[in-house]
Amino acid sequence: MIRKDQASTLRAIGGGGGGGSGGGGVVVPLESSRRRLIAITGGKGGVGKSTTAINLAMAYARRGARTLLLDCDLGMADLNLLLGVAPETSVLDVLRGANIEDVVVAAHGIHLLPALNGSYQLANLDEASRQALFEAVIGLGAQFDTLLVDTGAGIDANAVTFAGAAAEIVLVVTSEPLSLADAYSCLKSLAIHQSVRRAFVMPNNVRSPSEAEEVFMKLKVLADRFLDITLTPLPAVPHDPCVSQAAGMGTPMVLSSPDAPASRAYHRVAKHIDALSSTETRPGGLRAWLQRGLAQ
Questions:
Q1: Average pLDDT, 10 consecutive residues per value, the chain (296 residues)
Q2: ∠51-24-66 over CA atoms, to 5°?
Q3: I need a surface site. Which of 35, 191, 222, 284 has the fewest CB within 10 A?
């Protein structure tokens, strides 16, 4: 099991947020116990993918979920920096035989399975190594009910495979033309290589509701025309200077600035994913997470 000093932090999450108003002062418990397996992905680097993964993980944890965050940007890891921790071990140690429970670290009421920045080996895993990592993570299923996977940017084999293994996929995209183009490429790769038929789209760093709607509609028009994939919009996350401030402090924004517009938006996103998630699961790989009985 995860060490008791770490496990005790799972429920010791002060402050709050995540209610209908998204306020920061009240912890709103989950309506019911459920399993979640959510991949956060995006075609282009710099769109806010990792920040989204961390703050969604925090949003679920603050509502009572036992949450594990998996850094699958394996060779260019940064979740540990955004969480303000310095792990001594990483996924690479797991693949070399270390007990995964000894590699997982606690931070701010969630748990992180860290990757390793600058690791060429992790950035270029073969299929057997990816499957070994899947099985190691599945072994933690009795200790967590919510797993968020932060994939690398782009459409390399690691990113597409890890995103495609999830029950729900959140595509983070901004209004930049390159972000939109790369987001479409990401969807295309997921549809072709992982048979993904649905995905959430989260417009990020937008300055108005109309900008968010335009971002979603541009992707939807392309997906409807060229791909067999259904896109569902999530609440947009607005431009907010607190995002960069939190990154510099190594503290999730929903903790450091719980009443900031972006923090409130992340809580809304978490609630919408729960409300809109399909009961379907696709067999194989890490999807088995959702099919195993988890300890309550």
A1: 35 28 41 77 88 96 93 88 93 94 95 91 89 87 89 87 90 96 95 93 97 97 94 97 88 94 96 79 46 40
A2: 60
A3: 284
Strand (E) or helix (H) holding 234? none
Rounded Cα distance, 183 and 164, in Å: 15
Q: Are 256 and 242 in contact (CB under 8 A)?
A: yes
**Do residues 165 and 157 touch, judged by C-beta distance below 8 A?**
no
- Rounded to the nearest 5°, which phi and psi values hold at 53? -60, -45
The span from the CA of 106 to the CA of 111, in Å, is 4
210's torsion region: left (phi>0), alpha (psi -120 to 50) or beta? alpha
Say which residue the tokens 């595509």 belong to.
Answer: 171
Spatial separation of the C-alpha atoms in residues 95 and 169, rounded to whole Å: 25
**Position of tokens 């306020």?**
23
CATH code reported for the domain at 36-283: 3.40.50.300
Chain-centroid distance, C-alpha 235: 15
> What's the sign of the alpha-carbon dihedral 235, 240, 242, 243?
positive
- Predicted TM-score (pTM) of the model is 0.85
DSSP secondary structure letter of residue 17: B
Residue spans of the domains in the chain: they are: 36-283
Best CA proximity match to 108, nearest among 67, 139, 71: 67
Contact (Cβ atoms closer than 8 angstroms) between residue 17 and residue 26? yes
Using alpha carbons only, what angle is made at residue 129 by residues 76 and 293, rounded to the nearest 5 degrees?
Answer: 100
